[in-house]
Amino acid sequence: MMDNKILGEIAQEIYSYIELAEGDSFxxxxxxxxxxxDKYPSAVDIEEPVFKLVDKVSNIIKRQIEHxxxxxxxxxxxxxxxxxxxxxxxxxxxxxxxxVLSLRKERKKIFGxxxxxxxxDFEKLCIxxxxxxxxxxxxxxxxxxxxxxFVGIFELGKYVDSRVIPDNYKVKIVGQVKHKKKKVNPxxxxxxxxxxxxxSRPDEELAKRLPYWFTEVDLxxxxxxxxxxxxxxxxxxxxRREWLIHRNGEQIVEDLIKxxxxxxxxxxxxGDFVFDESTFTKAFMGIAS
Length: 289
Description:
The protein is of the alpha+beta class. It is 47% helix and 16% strand. The chain folds into 2 domains: 88 residues, Arc Repressor Mutant, subunit A, CATH 1.10.10; 179 residues, Trna Endonuclease, Chain: A, domain 1. The chain has a 5-stranded mixed sheet, with helices on both faces. Strands 1-3-2 form a 3-stranded antiparallel sheet. Helix 7 runs parallel beside helix 10.
């Protein structure tokens, strides 16, 4: 009988293969048979270990799909509606543009670029992301400006179809950006929340260091926290409880891919689109520090 730990390692190898592949569909049974026989070409009775492999690979994929759902991001693959052992590339019910589908294949490459840039350039990327999502009045603060990296004003009323919220309704945005591998913990969010409260009614000294267009108006205020890593479970609970908007690295990539501006980072090639790293980085590198 094949050791369960060894089967688990093979299952993880198969999942890694799926992650890096560019195919639009995979038969899990076929993949498991091929990987197993490649490793053990002299094996005679392969039915039982392959069956267990299929189960392990399927469970890994199910956990990944659930992980994506919790973060409100789209998975790379889902199980076919016709077979629970066939994977198909995710397709949105909303008929996503072809450029979004092309960029989703490049998601790991985009994430790698983001993790590889300098912290100040990541701040610029977050400002760029806010601007392409309708936060036109937003700017970086000075380096080490009391734990806050950017401030902005969002014209919420323009994008809410409601008779209750007026068209000119606005909110202030205060944000912090962390370009780190370590997960964000509750203490870091509590410290940021303190800064958010200070910025809602800044004292005279603080107001001098902020843009006039930000301090001249008295508006409700929201905190946004961006990180290239993730949040601990308790940090996520704290953010939800205190109404802090928090986005991790995977969510930032998803937000970028789904933006209308993302089509500018693609070049046509052989009837498809190819991601152009240079165009992508130029889009946000030019933002003033």
